[in-house]
Amino acid sequence: MTLAADLPSMLEADRLALRVGERWLCCEFSLRLAAGECLVLLGPNGAGKTTLLHALAGLRAPTVGTVRLDGRTYAQWESGATARFRGLLPQQQPDHFSASVLETALVGRHPHLGRWGWEGEQDEAIARAALAELGLADMAERDILTLSGGERQRVAVAALLTQAPRLFLLDEPTNHLDLHYQVAVLELFARLAREGRGVVMVLHDINLAARYADHVILLDGRGGVVAGTREEVLQTEPLSRAFDHPIRRVEIDDRIVFLPE
Known about the structure:
With 261 residues, the chain is of the alpha/beta class. It has a domain at 9-93 and 167-260: P-loop containing nucleotide triphosphate hydrolases (Rossmann fold), CATH 3.40.50.300. 32% of the residues lie in helices and 28% in strands. The chain is built from nine helices and twelve strands. It has a six-stranded mixed β-sheet with strand order 6-7-8-3-9-10, sandwiched between helices. Strands 2-1-4-5 form a four-stranded antiparallel β-sheet, covered by helices on one side. Helix 4 packs across helix 5. The model has no long low-confidence stretch (mean pLDDT 93).
């Protein structure tokens, strides 16, 4: 799978394969993500999307193959530099202690501070701007333990924006969000991609993938992988096979949508 071969790559995987125990999550495949592109990892529950995202984030070693960030393996990066280049939005946001929304967003500035550094006015301004982007400006002093699931997810996105990486790795960014904020968050990352960032995100919704992805990696849960452009991968046969259910491709008002039979 080659993405925008004429542009510098932000993220590459060469002959990547992943196994957990005796189960292969995906067979060998390659990818290359350039600045300005959005790659969606799609597939049924348990197919290995999060595991693959974590391998791309450098949090687990691939069973086979190599992952490179900006042309270098993770072993060649200093940890702080890695955190400034790529940021990960995890699927769940565990909160063990009380903290304000602003304090939680400011966690994103840690890779930009020295060992004994402390957040300054500029860091706070960046965090407040990120909160405003997510409609949370008036909630900066709220305790995160009082937030709804959707509000907490938006704080997590704001903390990632505060980190200001060049590459965003998002594990189900629409988790807990209502329809309005699902679209708002995905539109936000689509805009950041247009501005030259890279975006990789795990999604369950085929129609959201069709709307926002430039390229798709489809895992079928049995080790199979289909990788390519949105138009190549989002076809009824591979989708029906991966999700183990017949899927129809329908055109409505010049837009392609996918419906279960």
